[in-house]
Specification:
mainly beta; 4-stranded mixed sheet; 4-stranded antiparallel sheet; 124 residues
């Protein structure tokens, strides 16, 4: 920070704080890798923070031509947790990338996004 004080032209500000996780998503990014024509499925686990619980209302792929999703609520240690099954719809060789949009009932974070990449190699 700059000042017009001739004895002390600049000063440093240090901010310190505690950042709490709103949600734990494992894995944070989904990678589907295989060969063309192959069915690939990955499961994502979503665990709300104990201090900021929320319900997961929807799970939608931004591009449903690339992959589909199924949302399931499961019982966790501290309340409801969620599993999302991600399955490729695209079967043709190529590299694809898109997002899953998760809708919540939380005012803090009404929407969560998860990155999904799909890589299908040519069948030999």
């Amino acid at each position: 920070m700059l000042s017009n004080d001739p004895k002390k032209r600049s000063t440093s500000l240090i901010f310190k704080g505690l950042v709490k996780k709103f949600v734990s998503i494992t894995p944070r990014q989904v990678r589907l890798i295989g060969t063309e024509g192959q069915d690939l499925v990955r499961t994502v686990r979503i665990v709300p923070n104990r201090e900021s619980p929320f319900k997961l209302l929807t799970a939608r792929p931004i591009d449903p031509k690339l992959f589909s999703v199924k949302l399931k609520e499961v019982k966790g240690k501290n309340g409801p947790e969620y599993e999302i099954s991600v399955t490729n719809v695209a079967k043709k060789e190529g590299r694809y990338s898109s997002l899953i949009t998760l809708g919540t009932d939380s005012k803090l974070k009404p929407e969560i996004k998860i990155q999904v990449s799909l890589y299908l190699r040519k069948k030999v």
